[in-house]
What does this fold into?
Amino acid sequence: MKNVVVTKNLVKKFGDLTAVDDLNLEIPKGEIFGFIGPNGSGKTTAIKILCGLLKPTSGESYVLGKKIPNTSIFPRIGYMPQETALYLDLTVKQTIQFFGEIYGLSKDAIAKREEEMLDFVDLKARRNEIVDNLSGGMKHRLSLAVSLIHEPELLLLDEPTVGVDPELRSSFWSYFKDLASKGVTVLITTHYMDEANRCDRVGMIRLGKLVAVGSPAHMKEETGQPSLEDAFLWYLRGEK
Amino acid sequence: MGLRVSVAIAKNILRQISHDRRTVGMIVMMPLMFIFLFGYTFAGEPENIRTIVVNQDNGVLISLPNISGPVTLYFSEAVLDNIDTNKLSLEYVDDLDDALEEVEDGQAWAVIHFPLNFSLSLQQRILGTQNDSMPDTVMTLHLDGSNSQVASSIVAEVNGAIFETIEEHNPDLSMSSLINTNHVYGENVRFIDFFAPGIIGLITTMITIILTIVAFVRERTNGTLDRLFVSPAQPSDIVMGYTMTFSLIALFQSIELVAVASLLFNIAFVGSIFFALALIVIYAIGILGLGILLSTLAKNEFQAIQFVPLIFTPSILLAGILWPIESMPGFIRPVSSLIPLTYLADALRSVMIRGWGPIEVWVQLTFLVVFALLTIGASIVLLKIKSNRMGFRKK
Ligand SMILES: Nc1ncnc2c1ncn2[C@@H]1O[C@H](COP(=O)(O)OP(=O)(O)OP(=O)(O)O)[C@@H](O)[C@H]1O
Ligand SMILES: [Mg+2]
It folds into this structure.
């Protein structure tokens, strides 16, 4: 199995609105693929379809070699929703433990992952804090840690770095690169161009349609623009 | 995944609640508040009911063995002596019209009127020589019946006093020798014994429905439900987790309530406490399922909380908790028989007052079990649909 994510003519309509319009994607194993596009362009909708949370109107998708929807992929994917999606009344430690138990990790494994993950998102000092008392960015960090707790093969991360300070963002990206080098596939959405630049490939999506796919370098070359941001704007203009 | 996931979810809900002081307070205090309020407002009989006595009794001349010459005996005085003045605070007025005016004005609840020949006629009755043509013989109770509980207290007290008086003067004619009351169940059952089982059910309803609906709507709007849907946890694991936690809370509250009610009000508890608790848990599970179903109809917590009176009001009014279903109008009774609390209250009462077991209350037990299975089953199916797991491939 080469491609971890494959979509074929994927369409999702909400009433008259076509949120995802004929999406064809192929993401190979170990790639960091970035989804970029304006607000409401359909990034979140596409990710939710890949998780099985939304039913596509038409078209099909394959994740980790299985046709979606399929419950057997759940232990193997790590989904980080765009909203924080945490239990606000638990402590940080209890949150990690809970999701560890949900994924069937042993007590020892949970303890080990708790250390690793809290180290990664730099929340060790806030371990016993109630989640609701964390700052917005810290909640986002914890949310990312939760998605990684069971060492998934595929990460579906919906804007994981929103509100996270530059230093931590940079360390997140080193971590993603590290995971990718170990064969983990990462599908990430972002509005930050510096992050898009660090992806192996980016897909630009506009009004639910994929308008361009390729490596950042390739995109700049194709459009003749100096930066990815300019290339992005060029594509948006070009479609009009 | 099964049990381990359910336990994790159960533990998770408990931990969330334990960090939420106000909710913990509500869980602990609600049974106390209910039992205090209901216990102290309903447990007592009415007291100090202002009652006016108009005594025109002329008495009757009798001769007593150790006193020479006839003595005037007033049966009216004897009756009045037998009235418990803590219950009826008596006031004497000479004119009947003045007295009646007080009742009409709402100043007093009743007038006890003894006519001229009250004693004479009563004596004749006791001796068996009564003369039907004699006027002014019958004691009259003029009653303000606008409060039936007060009115029935007055009637009971006055009747009791008359019976006692007759008994004192002629034991052979004793009313209690004419009427023989035999309590099959629950001698000395007070109102609180009647409603305590219902209150247990009400609290279970209230807490379970509020906590489930809010917890579930929050789980959905937070996005944590999506997280669970994308995890190996099955919808049945999620529902089982909720079931464990809320059964535990219902158990805790029932034990608390029975303990407090026993200590303070000495409520009747003849049957098996374990069977009673089992009934409560089965009922709580049913209500929990209902809560999950309702929570999917609500967009947010504000909408969700509006379902609470929708469940609670019919439960408190129509389930036969405060007054028997037999006293409701005929067209309402079928509604009562659709309310799960009706069955719980009925079964619990039978267990607590009559000491019945599963065999005697099998109808109620069956209804509660079916109710729980239906709502839990339906909520699992609903979650499967919501998580797109219906007809999912496993491999
Ligand atoms: N449940 C829904 N019902 C109706 N319309 C929806 C629903 N979810 C999303 N949409 C619409 O679908 C479109 C795509 O939304 P989506 O959330 O996928 O955008 P996005 O690319 O993730 O945007 P953002 O960058 O703001 O996160 C939007 O127009 C949105 O309003
Ligand atoms: Mg989005």
Notes: Residues 3-85+152-236 of chain A form a domain with the Rossmann fold fold (CATH 3.40.50.300). The two ends of chain A are 38 Å apart (CA to CA).
